[in-house]
Specification:
Structural class: alpha/beta
Radius of gyration: 24 Å
Strand content: 5-15%
Shape: globular
Strand order of the largest sheet: 5-4-3-2-1-11
């Protein structure tokens, strides 16, 4: 039974929101969205969701019609994305003379575009908006559903999913069975229910949500062992970070200096002899496949280690010529043992959508006039002497459904990246956070080598075992952690989350018909 309405306590907040003018409600929605950003790196304070999500729900309660519902969701989404993705603007300052004028458009228009998903989600919530606390379940299911759509449509951009706010807490371990969308659904439920239910004097749902949060916290802490597990034959990995400034990376004599730095860091003696030396994305300015002498020089620098590096690859046997953003595995003698070509490219960075239109407007892509070609897809590399691994290049790590292809399970995941494009604040830290979540989801260690940071070795529970910080030059040696038993998510993927979403949406629609909101 729905509790009777009250005029004091928490019930005064939704009543006050209902009396605000349209623009005032829009501003409050924007601030609520911005507050949610605090849950993500580098602030990592997820508990503002316990206030921001109820405010979002109460603002929808107060919306007088469809346009107001859409406006509320759009403004909340704009606040969330404009504060959480401000680092995107840094890419336009790398070649400021050519691209700086585009930065204001990028840091506002992209968040406005992403905010449309939240606006449409808010509008769709009208279909499942039942009375009482159950409308929070409908809200959580609809918003999660639109976050799924955001992750796929127009090649997808699943950055800053609400479920990622727990990365610094034991709660994040639920990703091992819930995955990114199940974790997002749970996050919206357990943060939205307490205040929304208490405002209606419905204590049981509020207590249940808080108890679930406590249970997830305790279970997550229990799941992670005290010690890191290693195989007896675990290889020692050396990560090399040259800290090459992006605006100087391809400019002589700086490109030569960065290359020399990579060679010197690779050959430095350490407490242990590395078995694998890993350089970051596009570590060299030449095409490794066409430079056998330089490959031999790179191989020698590792003192007998297998070398892995990011570089460009060209196919000159086809017309027009194809250029790939690639990863190379080299023997100590410099022979190419394996190559992986990036398959999920960055729109406007590695290729220009609707190129004829933008060419006519004189707007090139950030990395030049030509487009990169697309690789064949996820790949498991098997190199003699190395545990088999799945390579990823930069942005590919944010797509969990594209990391592991068909076939045998890898023993670790490798990401080479150039986070110099992301600036020196939130972008690289959010990228690292997503690497930690991938480790939890798949139960596999994740190794990432970044040009300017943050390079890291992560265990299969997402713990950071070794790191090289932002804007630092250096190397670190770390044994590769052992993988764990395949997680529920790694076996089932996102299908269970989609089924639960469909059930919640159908149930919400049924309840809305039976118990429409007052």
């Amino acid at each position: 039974m729905a509790a009777r309405a009250t005029t004091g306590g928490l019930a005064a907040i939704p009543a006050w929101l209902a009396r605000r003018e349209r623009w005032s409600r829009g501003l409050i929605a924007f601030l609520a969205g911005a507050a949610m950003t605090a849950g993500h790196a580098p602030i990592d304070f997820p508990f503002l969701f316990y206030l921001a999500i109820p405010v979002f729900v109460w603002l929808l309660d107060a919306a007088p019609g469809g346009r107001a519902w859409f406006w509320t969701g759009w403004m909340a989404g704009f606040g969330y994305f404009v504060t959480g993705l401000h680092w995107i603007g840094h890419a336009f300052l790398v070649d400021a003379e050519q691209f700086a004028w585009l930065m204001p458009f990028a840091v506002t228009l992209m968040p406005l575009g992403l905010g449309l998903f939240w606006g449409l989600a808010a509008l769709a919530c009208r279909l499942v908006w039942a009375d009482g606390w159950m409308r929070v379940a409908g809200f959580a299911a609809v918003l999660t559903g639109f976050e799924v759509i955001r992750s796929y449509i127009f090649t997808g951009f699943p950055w800053a999913l609400p479920g990622y706010i727990w990365v610094e807490t034991p709660v994040m371990q639920i990703a091992s069975w819930a995955g990114p969308y199940g974790t997002t659904l749970i996050t919206l439920l357990i943060t939205g229910l307490p205040l929304v239910a208490l405002a209606r004097r419905q204590a049981i749902p509020a207590v249940a949500a808080l108890a679930a949060f406590a249970g997830f916290w305790v279970w997550g802490a229990w799941r992670v062992p005290d010690e890191v597990a290693y195989r007896d034959d675990a290889p020692v990995i050396r990560l090399v970070q040259p800290n090459a400034a992006q605006h100087l990376k391809w400019v002589e004599p700086f490109a030569r200096q960065f290359y020399t730095r990579l060679l010197e860091l690779s050959s430095k003696p350490g407490d242990v002899t590395p078995d694998i030396v890993i350089w970051p994305e596009t570590a060299v300015s030449f095409f490794p496949a066409f430079e056998p002498e330089q490959r031999a020089r790179i191989g020698t620098s590792g003192n007998g280690a297998t070398m892995i590096l990011g570089g460009l690859h060209a196919r000159i046997d086809v017309e027009p010529r194809q250029i790939f953003n690639s990863l190379f595995v080299l023997s100590p003698e410099g022979a190419i043992l394996a190559r992986y070509d990036k398959h999920h490219l960055v729109p406007f960075g590695e290729y220009l959508p609707f190129r004829p239109v933008f060419d006519a407007l004189g707007i090139p892509s950030l990395t030049g006039r030509g487009d990169f070609s697309t690789g064949p897809g996820p790949q498991r590399l098997e190199v003699p002497g190395l545990p088999p691994f799945n390579p990823l290049i930069c942005y590919e790590l944010i797509f969990p459904y594209e990391i592991i292809g068909d076939g045998p399970r890898p023993e670790w995941i490798l990401q080479v990246t150039n986070d110099a494009w992301f600036g020196g604040f939130a972008g690289p830290q959010q990228h690292l956070a997503q690497a930690r979540i991938r480790a939890i989801e798949f139960g596999l260690p994740v190794v990432r080598s970044a040009n300017t940071g943050i390079s890291a070795v992560l265990d299969p529970y997402g713990r950071v075992l070794a790191t090289i910080g932002l804007n630092s030059i250096g190397h670190t040696d770390q044994k590769l952690p052992d993988s764990i038993t395949p997680t529920t998510y790694s076996r089932s993927g996102d299908l269970p989350s989609y089924v639960i979403l469909v059930i919640l949406l159908a149930g919400g629609y049924y309840l809305k018909i039976r118990r429409p909101p007052r």
